[in-house]
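Journal club prep — side note

Before the paper discussion, L.F. wants everyone to see what a predicted structure for a comparable chain looks like in token form. Sequence:
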Amino acid sequence: MKKIIAIILPILLMTSLFYSCGDDFYTIKPKGQASLETFYTKEGVNALLTGAYAVIDGGNVRSGSIWASSVTNWVWGSIAADDAYKGSSFGDQATINPIEGFFADADNGYVTNHWRALYDGVVRCNDVMLVLPDVEGMTDEEKTLAAAQARFLRAHLYFELTKVHYKVPWIDENTENPTVVPNDHVVWPEIEADLTFAKDNLPSRWAGEPGRATEWAAKTMLAQVYMFQSKFPEAKTLLNDVVTNGGFELMESYEQNYLAATRNNKESILEIQYAVNDGSDGSYNAGWGDALNFPQGGKIGTCCGFFQPTQNFVNSFKTDENGLPLLDTYNNEMLPWADVWDKDNPEVYTKDFYPGNVDPRLDHTVGRPGVPFLDWGPIDAEQPIRDIQNGGPYHFKKNMFLKADQGSGNTTTGWATGVNNNSYRKYRLAHAMLWLAECAAETDDLPLALNMVNQIRERAKNSNYVKFEDGEEAAYYAVEPYDSFGSKEFALKAVRHEMRMEFGMEGYRFFDLVRWGIADNVLNAYLQKEGQFMGHLSGKKFVSNKHEYWPVPQTQIDLSVDESGASVLEQTPGY
């Protein structure tokens, strides 16, 4: 993948001649001197494939907002859920407010840009498939390998489109007129076909090139696709294979999955590779989709104070005297609300600020007042919040770079100096293990579910704990394994909570709530309680059978018409 990153910029410059910037984001329009014939060589295929890989992070696209299409799904998976507030100030990136409060419509800019950017990626994958049959100088095996990568990337993009917009038109290399393709079904069969081809034809590893699609990444994604359809036996088989035979191991300490120094480690199944200060314009090969999501100014000096943990999310890390989560009661009382740093009484922010037990993963995920923020020192008056009434008192931590790496690990140009080389762990062994636990619980294999969950909890227990400068632990950390899962109902509740602890603010939560069928109850309870002290959430409501998905952009409905002038695309139900 290092080779891929190194040539992304020149490839993007070349393909920018080839892709137009019109409103029809399904089709390819030759422009200037470039045409598909330019790529009918082995080198051309590799160039097109590199261009397809370049958009897997939601950036490097010719259309749309890189924040709307970020691979981390911070808007769609976390802010739309109970994990994160938009943060910053109410008026900044105001088009996110309707997503956070469930009043977005088909003209919302983030809705439109998500669709446009991901279809831009689909076009790039289709280009690879279009040229392959006529390329000279490639063996059949090489063509199959290129097709497997393109189809994996295309499946990823359609999976993301489906999770957000539900029914979308399937446009592939055989489509002659994309504007008349209807969205009359959920494209699960097509996604499954692409991933099945990918898993059967991709290698298990790429020597020296992390970030490329592999057999194990394809199996993990296909299992996730099955789970969204409640095909738990099929998903269980794949995940058991990944966990048992993939050769992956849990890292010794939880936070090692979020440090740049331990990228592409033994737990990683698929990482989206980031690079900074590499000669690209503004370090554009880094995670620009999350450029807004770093502490604003202050002693850290990054931008822009978006994506702040909710009080509900922080509360969910509470544990009892036995180190087990408060599955039903964690949100009955808030952890103390540190609304203003008390400069006259800084000693209040000690280990006893919250005297109860918490899961140690809390302080590897959330920057809390008084608690050390990696090696930057404690969050204090020198690290302000932009608008505490809009974002609360907490910072996000997992995407941050170390102070020791400042200047080498983050971009040194432009306004977004939080952008860094800390890769996004799309799939890691812990994902596969907890998804296997869910499938096991759903198929009444409670011993397997218990085993998977307890391995994750044991790792959390034995991880490095956040400590003050004097060596004292920053909180009363307590996490222990379960003795048993007495019922399927309890097992599912425990597994689902464990996912939130392990994957918190990684863009999964909203989609999980939807596929579990509990989004209505969970999110309305969250909005009702959180709205009591966060004014921008007051009175907001999640509407069942509508807000599980977001609209088809009105611009795309207007563009997709048949010969009679009738609209081909149907709007998502409820909009």
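L.F.'s comment for the group: Residues 288-537 form a domain with the Serine Threonine Protein Phosphatase 5, Tetratricopeptide repeat fold (CATH 1.25.40.390). Keep this in mind when we get to the figures.
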